[in-house]
Amino acid sequence: MEAEHPRGKTIAIVAYLTMLGALIAITMNAEPKYEFARFHTRQAFGLHLVFLGFALFLSQWWHPYAWIGLYTCYFVLWIYGFLGAVQGRKKSVPLVGDYFQRWFLFIN
Questions:
Q1: Fewer CB within 10 A of the terminal residue: the chain, N end or C end?
Q2: Predicted structure pTM score
Q3: What distance in Å separates the CA atoms of residue 29 and residue 51, rounded to the nearest whole number?
Q4: Beta carbons within 8 Å of 44's beta carbon, 6+ residues apart
């Protein structure tokens, strides 16, 4: 599905630029609301939140392979979502994207 408006696409791209970018995207999409931006903001917010949660957990457990796995998974899923936003596609990130759409309904 194509992005319905260039501003919605811009908001979707901003959402992937760190957790702060996701929070800024939430406010940017306050009025008018763009479905494409909402979809990608939920995806990006979820990715950043899960990454930060696992990073806090791993900060107590210093095994280097766990950190490599965390960064690899995050980077691959982030690239998948970011490229989808840039290309104007509304496709959930693998494994967790559908959950993010259900869990983060407050992002509207």
A1: N
A2: 0.85
A3: 23
A4: 12, 15, 16, 21, 22, 25, 81
Q: Which residue has the tokens 């936003």?
A: 85
88 φψ region: left (φ > 0), alpha (ψ -120 to 50), beta (else): left
Mind giving me the DSSP string for the chain?
---S-HHHHHHHHHHTSHHHHHHHHHHHTSSS--HHHHHHHHHHHHHHHHHHHHHHHHTTS--HHHHHHHHHHHHHHHHHHHHHHHHT---PPTTTHHHHHHHTTT--
Please answer whether residues 8 and 77 qualify as being in contact, where contact means their C-beta atoms are separated by less than 8 angstroms: no
Task: List pLDDT tens digits, range 43-77.
Answer: 999 999 999 999 988 888 778 888 899 999 999 99
Token readout for 86 is 């840039």
91 close to 84: Cβ distance less than 8 angstroms:
yes
